[in-house]
Specification:
- This protein is an alpha/beta fold and 251 residues long.
- It has nine helices and eight strands.
- It has one domain (16-249): Vaccinia Virus protein VP39 (Rossmann fold).
- Strands 1, 2, 3, 4, 5, 6, 7 and 8 form an eight-stranded mixed sheet that branches.
- α4 (81-90) links the parallel β2 (73-77) and β3 (95-97).
- The protein is globular.
């Protein structure tokens, strides 16, 4: 993911309908949400309190809805109008803010658990630390933040590097978080997501979804060739996605 894809310049997003189609296909074809829920469940089990939950960039609510069952009250910040409207209908009991994290004002709310899964890519990298600082300001004592990011190594990272450059500096972010909050407050976990499709067309669609920026559509045929030569298996197509979970605790 180069500077364009990592938020240094505006990402050229897909139209809402196409983005939703890609997202739904990715969700159906991957093990990510199930594994992520297990990892999140491990974090939640160690919380001092489980009253208030905040999800930043909830998307279609695939993580939000099951996680919310562990808390008394759920708040969502979702910048996409259609996603926010869907969640308002699907989960009327949730507090939903159709806004960006940068602009939303949640004063004086505090939360026991804050989730930010695959959202930082849409924020300029030099603003990541201040973005997490704002989350930390809304954290209750004994609570924690969970930030999920694509790993810079693994099969999906190799795919990225064929068409762009994945230069998201997770190590620097991790070091900055330790410097700000202390070594005892910051933890990292690693997990693998398997993405499987029966058809090559579906895998290409997922590849375009993972690249974030629709300008990569000009490489559709090359993306097709890449998956055909690198990720074809007897039952279809399969690629593994390495993911990193950064945890920040408030003592």
């Amino acid at each position: 993911m180069d500077k364009e894809a990592s938020g240094q310049t505006p990402i050229e997003m897909e139209e809402d309908a196409e983005y939703q189609r890609q997202l739904n296909l990715f969700s159906r074809s991957s093990t990510e949400k199930g594994i992520e829920l297990v990892k999140i469940g491990e974090i939640i089990s160690g919380l001092a309190k489980r009253k208030y939950f905040l999800d930043i960039g909830a998307g279609g609510g695939d993580l939000t809805i099951p996680v919310s069952q562990s808390f008394d009250e759920t708040t969502i910040v979702e910048p996409n109008v259609k996603q926010a409207d869907f969640l308002k209908k699907r989960c009327p009991r949730f507090n939903i803010y159709n806004d960006s994290w940068e602009n939303v004002d949640l004063t004086p709310m505090r939360f026991d658990f804050i989730l930010c899964s695959h959202v930082l890519y849409y924020i300029k990298e030099d603003q990541w630390l201040s973005t997490i600082k704002k989350m930390y300001a809304h954290l209750e004592e004994g609570g924690c933040i969970a930030v999920v990011l694509q790993s810079p190594i693994g099969e999906v990272a190799d795919f990225f590097n064929q068409f762009t450059h994945y230069d998201v500096n997770i190590l620097e972010l991790w070091q900055d978080l330790i410097q700000r909050y202390g070594e005892d407050a910051v933890e990292t976990r690693y997990f693998l997501n398997e993405i499987w499709t029966e058809s090559l067309d579906d895998m290409v669609t997922i590849g375009l979804f993972l690249l974030l920026d629709r300008s990569f559509k000009k490489y559709t045929e090359k993306i097709r060739q890449y998956f055909e030569s690198h990720h074809k298996i007897q039952e279809g197509y399969c690629i593994k996605q390495d993911e990193i979970l950064l945890i920040v605790k408030k003592k």
